[in-house]
What we know:
Layout: E1 2-6, E2 12-16, H1 29-47, H2 50-81, H3 87-116, H4 125-154, H5 160-195, E3 199-201, E4 204-206, H6 215-226, H7 228-273, E5 279-281, H8 287-316, H9 319-327, E6 337-348, H10 351-357, H11 360-380, E7 384-389, E8 392-397, H12 406-426, E9 438-453, E10 458-463, H13 465-476, E11 482-484, H14 486-491, E12 499-500, E13 516-519, H15 521-524
Parallel strand pairs: 2-5, 9-11
Antiparallel strand pairs: 1-2, 3-4, 6-8, 6-9, 7-8, 9-10, 11-13, 12-13
Helix pairs in contact: 1-2, 2-4, 3-4, 4-5, 4-7, 5-6, 5-7, 11-12
Amino acid sequence: MSAHATAADGRPIRILTPDVRPRPAFPRWTLAVFGVATLMSALDARTGSDVLEALAVASVVAAMGAGCFLAAWLEEAVFLRYAGRPALVRLVASAAVALAAIFVALIGGLLVGWLAGLVDGEDWVPGASIVFGMWLAGAAFGTALIILIDAGVSLVVRDFRTRVVVAVLLLLLVALAASGVVAVGAQGLVEAITSGQSQHVLGMDLDISLNNVDEHDRDAIGFIAEEPLMLMTILMVLAGLFAIPPIMSACGKLAEAVMDRIHPLSAAMQQVATGNRDVHVEEAGSTDFIQVSRSFNGMVDALVQAEKMERAFGKYVSTKVLQRIKSQHGEALIPPSKREATVFFADIRGFTSMSEQLSPERMVEILNRYFERVVALVEEHDGYLNKFIGDAVVVVFNAPIDQPDHAERAVRCAIGLQRVVRELNESGAFPEIGALRVGVGVATGPMVCGNIGSTRQMEYTVIGDTVNLSSRLTGQAGGGEVWISERTAELLPSDVTRQALEPIKVKGKEKPVVPYRVWPRELVTA
């Protein structure tokens, strides 16, 4: 189970509590053990075979063990049912379980034994019922004891380690006190038997007279009188057996105090690992677990903020650069390099005159409408959208990610851009201006790639003569055309049609360059 709340940043969250801990499944195998014990007892009663008698004894012992296991499961289920409730509620629940267990041990055993007589299993069923009830009562007593101890200790001690130490010491004192009571009672019983006189044992007057017992019992009492150490040993062993259920239960409940906080934390970690960030764990328990839960919740909140920052950062930085930074474990400094790459500029024709006719808000709206499709197209071709320069975009291929077919990618992306513009115009996407006309220039060659800026703010960009050439080709290309450099044309596959144009003189070049046109198709093939 979980509660619902609101985080500091206003997002809804679920708070996982100890109730998320899985409940132990019902041990169905115990029913099978009981069935086998009943069957073996019935067959032994009818046949009297030595083999079946041995099997019946073994199955009865197994049934006793299964009864203990079933009792432990029932007590655990009740404890988990009331986990997280006030100590008084849990104490009442444990007391109710103990009383019910005593009823089962004293009355239920006789009743079940009478019913089991129908299958001749009455020899073992009452005994198993009594063992079940005794174990359940002992476990419930252990739970009640540790609840009382923990409730008292938690009022004084807040850290978990000290609480466990104090609880174990108090539990040990209770066990020693119980052992002392048993020892005193055993000693009084031995004295009563050996002296044959009334003895005051644990607040009761005990009178064992040999005159009122038959000869067989008199012999047994006489043997015990001669071996008092054996009687005390037997009584101490029985006391130890009776102490096993409450001790196991009490120690188990100390472990439950840890698991109550570990399970919500583990469940929350699993959900965070699968991408769920709207989860917290309850900040309760000892000071240690409160601090751990608070740290975990703070970590989740910090992770949410980091992802928000990443998404915001991704709107200003290309996905390719963001992926490269991630691959470098958050290190933003991408080493500079000189490589052959392809870059293209796409520039809107007549933008200056349009901006004079339209309001700034309307102009920005038109540009965003256009850029929305351009950005998606660049992502589709795995390009690096380097920057927006007013109404122009600069796209790079083979930097910062290696792309052996960078020239082909760039040209196909540039052609795709012109197709997108044509579709937008035909669909009437720009009613304010009628239509957009975009010129694209593509160039391939060596360029320097790296971070440029200051230690506070920098930008991954490309510089060099190839970048300048791309800008010059863009200025020469008409609206709706794609011009490419000679090196770009050399790297294209044969299925990309291109048309060599007249050499042109561009700024920064001593010799004229030969551009090629790859779009529109009708001009290329004319």
